Amino acid sequence: MLAAHLPPLAASLFSLIAIASLLLAFVMLGSRWLRHYLYAFAAESWLIGILSAAIGYYGDYPELYLIAILTFLFRGCLLPYLVLRIIRRLHIAREVHVILQASTSLVVGAFAVIFALGVSSRIGAELGLTGTVVVLALTVMLSMKLIGFLMLAVRHEAISQILGLLVLENGIFLGAQILVPGMPLLIEIVILFDLLIVVACFGLLVQYLMTHVGTTSSLELRRLVG
Q1: 181-217 core/surface letters (b: 16 or more CB in 10 A; e: else)
Q2: Residue pair 155/161 in contact by the 8 Å Cβ criterion
Q3: Transmembrane segments in this chain: where (predicted)?
Q4: Which is nearest to 144 in space by CA: 6, 11, 28, 16?
């Protein structure tokens, strides 16, 4: 496993990018302004693109350079642009329908990170990888997945839920880049294009909600039954 035998400089670089990505997920969790969500997601995607290129360099995986470019273009540019178009078209500025306030969401997110750290440390100990970047990668991956699920649970603006799904997938992708960098190129490209389908489908759902219900809150989906 590449992450278990990294030189100190590479391990520090990977750790810095992973931690910065997790902090950007907290920015999304703690804000109620949709543009803030979007900018944080774009920055997070650019960091993952940098991570892919760095892993390709240190691990001698030339195909990861292509993944880095596609990540910059699709995750960091195209997907945010598509979501921004939806926000502008619907004239939505902020999240209105929430179960937890931003401060409470951050506290729950912090507990999610603690839980992820405990699980990752246990896995690292079982595999004899304690003290390596593997534990950090697992922690960040699980934390971002939990934060993505949390955003889906406590936010009811359809745009927020799109970004919650994208954060969840970013966590999986970041962890995969560090833990299994030799994952087949075709699988990674398919994952990138699947995200385009997700955003397109959610865009249609949001427009349908606005047209037939007059709101973009997913709470109103029950009014569309039948």
Answers
A1: bebeeeebeebbeebeeebeebbebbeebbeeeebbb
A2: yes
A3: 6-30, 37-58, 64-84, 96-117, 129-150, 162-180, 186-209
A4: 28
> Could you tell me the sign of the dihedral formed by the alpha carbons of 120, 44, 191, 12, in that order?
negative
For the chain, percent of residues with pLDDT exceeding 90: 9
Q: What is the structure's pLDDT at 78? A: 83
Mean pLDDT, residues 108-132: 85
Q: Which residues 6+ apart lie within 8 Å of 215 measured at CB? A: 209
Q: Give pLDDT tens digits for 124-142.
A: 888 777 777 888 888 998 9
Amino acid (one-letter) located at 60: D
The verdict on pTM exceeding 0.70 is yes
Q: What b/e sequence results for 128-155 when a residue is b if at least 16 CB atoms lie within 10 Å of its CB, and e otherwise?
A: ebeebbbbbbbbbbbbbbbbbbbbbebb
Count of domains observed in the chain? 1
> CB neighbours (10 Å) of residue 41?
24
Per-residue model confidence (pLDDT) at position 113:
93
Q: Quick check: 67 and 180 in contact, CB under 8 A? A: no
CA dist., res. 12 & res. 34, Å (int) = 32
pLDDT of 121 higher than 60: yes
Residue 172's domain comprises: 2-224
Position 36, amino acid: H
User: Mean pLDDT across the stretch 209-225?
Assistant: 56
